[in-house]
């Protein structure tokens, strides 16, 4: 899922309206279970309920340009979640079948990652494994850090420019000067939408904020992706957080969200793009110099 260009360049005031209205009206309809679409009238009413002005949304009985834009975004968000994300999410049995199909008879060079469950629920981390396998098979010999044990760092002239606060789940081709980084949030055996799942969303938001600052201040754009799966967790329990994820995507904090079934077709396309970025980027040359310096010291 990539962002709709109509909403990508909206300022933070627009997104403040989206968040305020969403939390006041609620994200989902309790009757149908689908994501709500806020009409211009409801947007205006929500702002008044919050003690805020609303004449910039409805003026003289007519919707303003800003009011119509807000409504169009709520319409788009609901459509994406209700008609796209919902149907791409898998639960454990379907994810297991998809994993086995992608794995086939070809064993990857890396160990298959396992989930953190115990007993009967202990199994491969299906989404993570599928992402890793597809990257390896399409990387054309380029390396990839499937399990970074250090913080993502960007350098210039072999000096650190920025180092992110958190470890990411993967980086291509390296956690130093990557072309792309990603987070993977799979919750196949989770029975409630707890704080751990919510924290996963906010972790990606933190990464996105740091990468936005890097892009704006240093002109360096690291691609940032979020992979999610588990129909029960995200759709049955966490539709409001799906709304937050779609908001985050359009705010520019994530370049793309890849949902469940989309992994099989989308990851190979992404890897080809990452290879071209790495070949042509100044950061790719910087990475080569750093690796050469490391090898010289080891030698």
Helix content bin = 40-55%
Number of helices: 11
* Number of strand elements: 8
List low-pLDDT spans.
none
Strand content: 5-15%
Q: Ends: how far apart?
A: 45 Å
Structural class: alpha/beta
- Arrangement of strands in the largest sheet: 5-6-7-8
Overall 3D shape: globular
Rounded to the nearest angstrom, the radius of gyration is 21 Å
Q: Secondary-structure element sequence?
A: HHHEEHHHEEEEHEHHEHH
Mean pLDDT: 92
Largest pleated sheet = 4 strands, mixed
Total separate domains: 2
Report what the structure shows:
The protein is of the alpha/beta class and 299 residues long. It folds into two domains: 5-88, no CATH class; 92-298, no CATH class. The protein is 52% helix and 11% strand. The protein has eleven helices and eight strands. The chain has helices spanning 5-8, 12-25, 40-49, 65-88, 92-103, 126-138, 195-218, 231-237, 239-250, 263-280, 282-298; strands spanning 58-59, 62-63, 153-156, 159-163, 170-172, 180-186, 223-229, 256-259. Strands 5-6-7-8 form a four-stranded mixed beta sheet, sandwiched between helices. Strand 3 and strand 4 form a beta hairpin. Helix 5 (92-103) runs parallel beside helix 6. The longest helix is centred in the first third of the chain and has 24 residues, at 65-88. It starts with a helix and ends with a helix. The mean pLDDT is 92.
């Amino acid at each position: 899922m990539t962002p709709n260009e109509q909403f990508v360049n909206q300022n933070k005031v627009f997104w403040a309206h989206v968040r305020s209205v969403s939390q006041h009206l609620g994200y989902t309809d309790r009757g149908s279970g689908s994501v709500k679409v806020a009409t211009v009238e409801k947007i205006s009413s929500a702002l008044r309920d919050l003690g805020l002005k609303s004449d910039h949304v409805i003026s003289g009985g007519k919707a303003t340009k800003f009011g119509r834009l807000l409504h169009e975004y709520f319409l788009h968000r609901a459509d994406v979640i209700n008609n796209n994300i919902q149907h791409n999410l898998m639960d454990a049995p379907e994810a297991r079948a998809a994993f086995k199909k992608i794995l086939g008879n070809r064993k990857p060079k890396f160990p298959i990652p396992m989930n953190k469950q115990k007993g009967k629920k202990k199994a491969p981390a299906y989404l993570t494994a599928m992402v890793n396998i597809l990257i390896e098979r399409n990387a054309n010999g380029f390396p990839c850090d499937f399990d970074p044990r250090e913080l993502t760092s960007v350098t210039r002239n072999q000096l650190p420019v920025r180092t992110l606060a958190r470890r990411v789940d993967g980086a291509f081709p390296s956690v130093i000067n990557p072309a792309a980084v990603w987070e993977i949030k799979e919750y196949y055996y989770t029975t409630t939408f707890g704080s751990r799942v919510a924290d996963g969303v906010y972790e990606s938001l933190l990464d996105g904020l740091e990468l936005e600052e890097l892009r704006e201040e240093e002109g360096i754009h690291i691609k940032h992706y979020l992979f999610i799966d588990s129909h029960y967790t995200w759709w049955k329990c966490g539709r409001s957080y799906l709304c937050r994820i779609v908001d985050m995507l359009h705010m520019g904090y994530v370049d793309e969200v890849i949902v469940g079934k989309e992994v099989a077709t989308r990851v190979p396309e992404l890897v080809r793009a990452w290879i071209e970025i790495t070949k042509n980027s100044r950061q790719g040359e910087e990475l080569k110099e750093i690796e050469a310096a490391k090898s010289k010291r080891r030698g």
